[in-house]
Every structure is written in structure tokens, then in C-alpha cells.
Amino acid sequence: MNKNEAAKTILKTQYNQQPINENGEAFAPSNIALCKYWGKRNLELNLPITSSLSISLGDKGAHTSIEVIDSHQDKIYLNNIPVANTDKFAHRITKFLDPFRTTKKLAFAINTKSNIPIGSGVASSACGFAALTKALNNLFGWNLTDTELSILARLGSGSACRSLWHGFVKWEAGIQDDGMDSYATKLNYNWPDLRIGLLLISDATKPISSTNAMLRTVNTSSFYKLWPQQVAHDLVQIEHALQIKDFQKLGETAELNALAMHATMLTSNPPILYSTPKTIEYMHKVWQLRQQGLGVYFTQDAGPNLKLLFLEQDLKKIQNTWQDIIIITNEHKS
Ligand code: 2P0
To answer: How far, in Å, is the centroid of ligand 1 from the Cα of 285?
Structure first.
């Protein structure tokens, strides 16, 4: 099955119908995985090998608007600035939109406004594709369910299927070849005191994209065969920690999960190492603070930046240690 057929399966009789509105817009929050998605069983449909669990970043995310234009090609903007169609970001959006063109000549103007620092490694593709999927739903008037939107968003970027909700979200890997059972759902936990701190270490372009890094890890790392077991264990621990609000358990599990993911990358051939000396320095600092009794843990995605997990009561101490840390609350207005 390809992306086009997957979109057709979701849209059913609405497939190939004209947009009912002139434009559509929507917001989607960014998300950070506490138990990571790493490795695909289907590259075309972004079907994961394992399930994953994330926390959304409140009001930090993407606001996307889309309209139909009279042009032979899409016009793509990032924060109101035009992006060349040859750009990778523009190319991914254009490819994602292809199944929804009712005629070959149907073109779109898309403006993605992000309030997260660009290049911060905070899942910009996740919130971008989730917001675009919701905006498309409004433009065409499809009235899709959250589950259907999650499946469509996944076709743009795997982690985007988790960005449809605020709070804690779990993406079930599913087992079907067509991916119709691979989508995210909102978990019924909340934790108002939980804080995320973003430590920006570098905004340089990634040495290797997540997609390619996943491929290489799955194909070459002997440690990767341990990854599904690790995830199965960590998902149980994290859900239990969320249930009983055990912050130490949550932090320890999330940190170890991130380190295990990076261990699979380090043991790939050629090896993948996203950390820089500064990343390692900050990891040691986190461990030192923990030895002194402070409840702080880190997680790391496909980049050098660290995201800290801590509780509101320790905010001042964290800010004293890292003056330029960006603090994110998982709460949101509205
Ligand atoms: C995650 N990451 O669970 C993991 C952890 C990065 C490290 O999902 O190829 O942009 O578009 O499905 O979703 C980043 O990868 O990859 C990611 P594609 P995506 O958040």
C-alpha cells in the first residue's frame, strides 16, 4: 500500500471531492517522546516497529493555514517567509499533499507559523504535519475523527500522529500492513506540576535525518534487537508512573529509554552520534544535581539538545543552573 491508497482508505467516498472552503487553518502542539519511536516496519507509511508515548508541549507548536491557489505549483511559507520548492521541507509538504489533489492542477499555498525555536530539535515536523492535516480537514470539510486524522498525519511524519492532542499521548504501533491500526490516542492522565526545560546546544543541521538514522540503526545495529523489549518494559513503567504520579520513576525510565535509543545508534555502522561535548557536559551536570538530591532527568531526540524533566517546585534551582533554559509547561490556554 502506498500513501495515496492509505489516504483513499481513510477518506472513502470523500476521496477526490473538491474543497468546500477557500482556506483552512489549525494549530497543533509539538511533542516530546518519553518512550521513543525509533525504527520503521514500513518506510512509505511511517509504520513503527514499536509503540511510543509522548507529552505535548502546550502552546508551543505550529499554526498552519492552507488555501487553494491558481498556480502550477504549491507556494510554501515558513513564518510568512517563502521557502524555495527545491528545499527539503517544501518537498516533503508537497509530497504529503499529492494524494489530496483532486485534479493534477490543484495547488496550495501553505503557511506554517511556529513558535518553537527553529532548529531546536523540538519535533517541528511533528507539529507541522499534525497542524497541516487538521487544516486540510477544515479546507475540504472532511469531518474526520481524531483517529483518522492521526493516521493521515503519520503519513507526513511518524511522530506527527502524536501531535493531535494536548497532554500525554500513546501511539500504538499496530500490526496491519495497511497501518489502519497504527495511530495515537490521548491518555487520561494529567500532571500540572510537570515541567520541561529545553537546553539548546546547537541549531546546526542534523548530520543525518531521523528517517535515515532509523533505517541505518535497524539494518546494522546488533543492539537494535533489544529495543522492542526495552520499549515494552518502559511503556509499562511510564504508564504506571503517570497513574500514581511517581516522578522519580517517570524521569528514570524516560532518561534510560533515551539513552538506550542512542545506544542503538552508537552501535550502528557507520556509527551515529548526535551528542556534542556540550551534550555530555550537561548530562553530567544533571547526574551531579541528582546526586545532590534534585529531581531532574533528561531526554534526548535525534539531535544534540537535551530536554529536562522536573517539577515546578524546583524551577528556580534549574533556572539558576541554566540561565538560558526555555521552560515549557504542558498546560495550554483554551
Ligand atoms: C520520537 N523521533 O519518538 C523519536 C525519537 C526522534 C527521536 O520521531 O521519518 O520526524 O518523519 O517518521 O517522526 C523524529 O522522527 O521521523 C522522531 P519520520 P520523525 O519523537
So the answer is: 26
DSSP symbol at 50? S
Q: Which of 37, 41, 2, 7 is nearest to 175 (CA)?
A: 41
Does residue 33 have its Cβ closer than 6 Å to ligand 1? yes
Distance 109 CA to ligand 1 centre (A): 26
Query: 60-107 pLDDT, tens per residue?
Result: 999 999 999 989 899 999 999 999 999 888 999 999 999 999 887 789
Residue 123 has pLDDT above 80, yes or no: no
pLDDT tops 70 at residue 45:
yes
Q: Which helix (H) or strand (E) holds 83?
A: strand 81-83
Alpha helical stretches, state H, 66-223: 88-97, 124-140, 146-156, 210-220
pLDDT of residue 83: 93
Picking from 23, 49, 15, 19, the residue whose alpha carbon sits closest to that of residue 35 is: 49
Cα Rg for the chain, rounded, in angstroms? 20
Percentage of the chain modeled with pLDDT above 70: 98
**Cα distance between residue 41 and residue 39, in whole Å:** 7
Taking the C-alpha atoms of residue 112 and residue 89, their distance in angstroms, rounded to an integer, is 11
Question: Has residue 333 got a pLDDT over 80?
Answer: no
